[in-house]
Amino acid sequence: MRTFAAAAATIAVVVAIGACGSGGGDNPVAFCDAITDASLGGSVTSIDLEDQDSVDAAIAELTELAELAPSDIADDAAVVSEVYIEALEALADSLPGARDDLLRDLQPRLDQAAEPAARLERYATTTCALEFEAPAEPTPTPTPLDIDA
């Protein structure tokens, strides 16, 4: 579950949902403002998987960001959004006790968004002047040897 929490924090700051990579907006200032607002207490930073309204609010916030994604990052935004929305919905639909296993099953899919997320993070750092506590990078899936150590 810790992995998804870290991913959710990254989403709050760098993700934007794109309509098949089309890039809904080409106003970096509006996009940066939306990312900043989301990271300072938006729905994505406080997702409660037990509360469907919370999940819906996070998805709505991400959708709003998508509409503002500049075309130069729209393809990366589309990949990241597809993967994280898929994970968010799957986790919200699962029982709390099954989420750790589900998250392990989703890890290869989450890893597919790592490079695009890193590029979005670089964009937010260079264009929006945002700083990140935890950079977007793949979280290794623990192996039995890691767990037993």
* Overall shape: globular
Structural class: mainly alpha
User: Into which percent range does the helicity of residues fall?
Assistant: 55-70%
- State the low-pLDDT regions, or none: 1-23
Q: What order do the SSEs take from the amino end to the carboxyl end, as H and E?
A: HHHHHHH
* Alpha-carbon Rg, integer: 15 Å
Quick check: average pLDDT?
75
Number of strands: 0
| Beta-strand content bin | under 5%
Oligomeric form of this entry?
Answer: single chain
Largest beta-sheet details: none
N-to-C span: 20 Å
Number of helices: 7
Name some characteristics of this structure:
7 helices; 149 residues; globular; mainly alpha
Structure description:
α1 packs antiparallel against α2, α3 (52-68) packs antiparallel against α4 (74-93) and α4 (74-93) crosses α6 (114-128). The model is unreliable at 1-23 (pLDDT under 50). By secondary structure, the chain is mainly α. The chain has 7 helices and no strands. Helix content is 64%, strand content 0%. It is globular, with a radius of gyration of 15 Å.
Please summarize what this structure is.
With 149 residues, the chain is mainly α. It has 7 helices and no strands.
Q: What is the topology?
A:
Blueprint lengths: L1 H13 L13 H12 L12 H17 L5 H20 L5 H14 L1 H15 L15 H5 L1
Helix pairs in contact: 1-2, 1-4, 1-6, 2-3, 3-4, 4-5, 4-6
